Every structure is written in structure tokens, then in C-alpha cells.
Amino acid sequence: MTNLMTASLSAKQDILAELKQGNTAILKGLPPSVAMSYGLALQAEVGQAKDSPIDSEAVAMAMLGRIKEK
Known about the structure:
This protein has 70 residues and is mainly alpha-helical. It is built from three helices and no strands.
């Protein structure tokens, strides 16, 4: 299984079922991008994708301020 898109439907469902039960050991040995794709699929399935708590505009303004100081 090289990625989430090429895995068989039953394999995807089995892995997602294991993840729902908290078994993260099933992700060991997978490339990080594949493990992340399962995490994103799980978030999408349960509908609990969270926005980042980081305020991008505040970070950008702070970086610009730092650049101007130099």
C-alpha cells in the first residue's frame, strides 16, 4: 500500500476503524505523508477538523516588525 488513494477500500476502512479505537501503532512504518493522509481522512470522516489556533496575520506582522528592526 503506497498511499491512501491506492489502498483497497476495505484496507482503508480497517485502518480507519483501528485509528478510531485509538490504535496508532497501525501507522508505524508508513511514510509520514501516508500517515498524515489517514489522519486527515479520519478528521474528515468524523467532522472534527480544527482550524489552527495560530493567527497568521499576527505572525506576519511580528516578522515584518523584526525585519524592520534590523
